[in-house]
Input
Amino acid sequence: MTLFRFSSSLLVATATAGLILLAVDPIGGQAQAPALTILSREGRRPLPLTIANDQELVVLDDLAAAFQLTVRDEPLGAVAVGYKGKTVLLTPDQALVSVAGRLVSLPSAPTRNGRRVLVPVEFINRALALIYDSRLDLRKSSRLLIVGDWRVPRVTMRIEAGDVPRIVVDATPRTESSVSQQNNSLFIKFEADALDLAIPAFQPQALVQAARLLEPVTLVIDLGPRFGGFRASTQPLESSTRLTIDILPSQPDAPATPPPSTAPPPDLSALSQPPAGLRVIAIDPGHGGQDDGVKGAKGTKEKDLALTVARRVKAAIEGRLGIRVVLTREDDRTVALATRAAVANNNKADLMISLHANASFQKAAIGASILYASFDREAEQLARSSLGSERLSAFGGGLRDVDLVFWDLAQIRHVARSGELAALLEEQFRDRIPLSAHPVDRAPLDVLEAANMPAVMLEMGYLTNEAQEAQMSAPEFQNSLVQAVFDAVVKFRDAPQGGTR
Output
């Protein structure tokens, strides 16, 4: 939200209605956008939306009916939106509205269509949020607006394919859930008022056929004909609750007597095991959600580029090395810096790479760079003085020593190995990816300081350089970068500690 001071006597209105707005499935290719559904204690009713110039708009009169507002014309074409004597002032063709002496920016200007005035749907959370006394939480990516203190966790799911498919469901903030089986479906019921749910697209499989929302708080997993049972476990993360469900296949009937000439199959289990030393890698696509990061002259957004490359790196490493790769964000959403390191730590990652794009006032600046964390002398002394261990009871009896270290100084123990990883990345980038004048450097990096493993930040290039913006968006560049990262990971895995060659 962008706010400016403005000399005006406009007052701020208040309202007490508690509502939840949800969007139904979009209707592609039409000017009519999917309607929002207003949920309140009195029931449900739709709020129509319209798409114009790639913006979702709502008619002020419809908004007034839903939120008990008044709409009246003012001199010079202005429009006043009021509630109990309080006013928001807007002017068609101006992307700024005045609220209580402040100017608030909208993504596009209000427009007139005959007697109707249409405003961007963001008007609800950017302007009405300032005159409501109830909390407004617009989650545009999931087409959800929460008004008031409702329990509506953000729920994401992914399916990890394999002989035993695994369904991973994360609920943020932490939310309890229960799993039950009814016929050929699993029902995951959350302790919430509604769900902000993202279901990925996937092809039906022999064990998992589909996933769907059963209003208001139940996620249903439809199972395939080979389903035999399931195993569920719950793990609390930094700010989320992770539910993991293994889908077990049914056991085929064994033949009465095996063919006498059939030799036992060779034991190939070692070939499918993760390589020693690296079992989990965390890839952090920088920015996301409301934070676009750097934006190039041709419209390339850092957050989109980082996520695209992160997915390519994940596919390459998992598909060719068998190492599990965890992304700190799977889609376009805001993730706090502390949460990114927490995802890597909670998944016991063996190394972490944070992907970004660079920017400079010098338009000719070009090239990738690799950064790893630096700390001031006082912080290093504090970390070293705090290092220690505590003997705790172990599960099943006995004692074990547990290392203790300040959370936000965890990276200090891994700076040397982080430098080795940075050097390997630079080595693999040469003759493949343009490098900056100083390709390896150290800097205070909030996103890495709490990472309890070797970690680096990779600036892939400069989006402020138009030529490199076009280059970074091309599949050829991304393929070369992914291969360079892949080769650096292999060398890091195979190199002894203290030497990268």
Remarks:
- Confidence is low (pLDDT under 50) at residues 1-30, 253-276, 386-397, 399-407.
- The first strand starts at residue 3 and ends at 5.
- The domain at 154-251 is CATH 2.60.40.3500 (Immunoglobulin-like).
- Residues 302-321 form the longest helix (20 residues).
